[in-house]
Design goal:
241 residues, three-stranded mixed sheet, alpha/beta
Length: 241
């Protein structure tokens, strides 16, 4: 079996067990390079891809390779020689008059501070959120991280912040994304060599609300790569479980 045919079989096996967005984001960019003995050599776009797949999908790859090969095959990653600028200081991207569509706020208008059910276990979080909404970026809470058990109103609070900011200043750029969406945007910018554009788009936010930040837990290198693209001037509010 050639390396191309083996990788096609592995890819199809992965597609049976993993979500489509995972396949499109992490495995479609992989190129099979060679079959050296029983070792399938796979090329990934950059070190970030290698680290992410190793930490999230290594066992999936092992299982798919085992089912796709009659031999006791293994795999090895090599990083593409093409360099991707992660600094945000590379060649200028075309100027944009308006930020891309993914920056549009996805806020639930039914969430507000007035409708928030306050109790002894969330009173401080509410007051901190109000402080952020009243003076984004200039309060003591920048970034503000809201955490706690299920059903305590974390999502309600971060939506309330965004709604309050827009009520006071309708022209404010309020961005609400999940940490997974943020990750996928970053990965896609790597694939398309548009990390500068990615950084500019998120930096254009006046208030950045990131939902479910536990997605970054234990992923120090990817997390650090993400947030090097954000300046301290962006007001960040995070919610975790």
């Amino acid at each position: 079996m050639t390396h191309d045919k083996l990788w096609t079989a592995v890819y199809n096996e992965l597609a049976e067990t993993l979500p489509a967005h995972a396949i499109n984001t992490w495995f479609e960019p992989i190129s099979p390079i060679a079959l050296s003995g029983k070792e399938l050599v796979l090329e990934v776009p950059n070190q970030f891809f290698y680290e992410w797949i190793e930490s999230h999908y290594k066992q999936n790859l092992i299982n798919a390779l085992s089912k796709s090969s009659e031999d006791d095959s293994s795999f090895k990653f090599i990083v593409s020689a093409k360099k991707t600028d992660l600094s945000g200081n590379g060649d200028p991207e075309p100027k944009q008059k308006k930020p891309s569509g993914f920056l549009a706020p996805l806020l639930n208008n039914n969430y507000s501070f007035e409708k928030f059910i306050e109790g002894s276990n969330n009173q401080f979080a509410k007051n901190a959120a109000i402080s952020v909404a009243n003076d984004p970026g200039n309060s003591s809470f920048n970034p503000l991280i809201v955490y706690g058990g299920v059903g305590l109103g974390k999502t309600h609070l971060i939506h309330s912040i965004g709604n309050a900011v827009l009520k006071e200043n309708p022209s404010a750029r309020v961005v609400l994304v999940t940490s997974e969406k943020f990750t996928l945007d970053f990965v896609n910018s790597l694939r398309k060599n548009k990390t500068v554009e990615f950084a500019k788009q998120y930096r254009s936010a006046d208030v950045l609300l990131i939902d479910d930040i536990q997605f970054f837990r234990g992923k120090n290198k990817p997390r650090n790569n993400f947030f090097t693209h954000l300046t301290s001037s962006t007001r960040r509010v995070n919610k975790s479980y």
